[in-house]
Design goal:
single chain, 120 residues, alpha+beta, 6-stranded mixed beta sheet, 24% helix, elongated
Amino acid sequence: MFSELKEWIESLLGNEYQYSMGPWLETDSLEFVCTIIGMGGAGVDMDIRKPRFKIMLLGPRNGRQYAPKLLTDIDNLIQLAIDSNPPCGAATIRAVTEPTGPGYTTENRAWVSVDFQIIY
């Protein structure tokens, strides 16, 4: 499921981002990061699964000026959920929160996030 979700996100964001399943490893060469974090979800009900994932986008170190780009990219992911076929063979994918952020890490990376729910 993680791989298919990553491929769906990557179809919009492309290779500009480095992708991480869960926490990323901070390195000097790390620029834009898209991290995918499993958040659990509602219990299985009548064979219907509803896992949630937090998608967090981060900009380069000392890159507070990238906050508007990250907000645009996260809004485009939300629009992709509305306009495209869902990933992972799911029935639907939807944003279940509004974007959070921008915030800033201790390395001065701008970040934004949104939670998605996939329904099978």
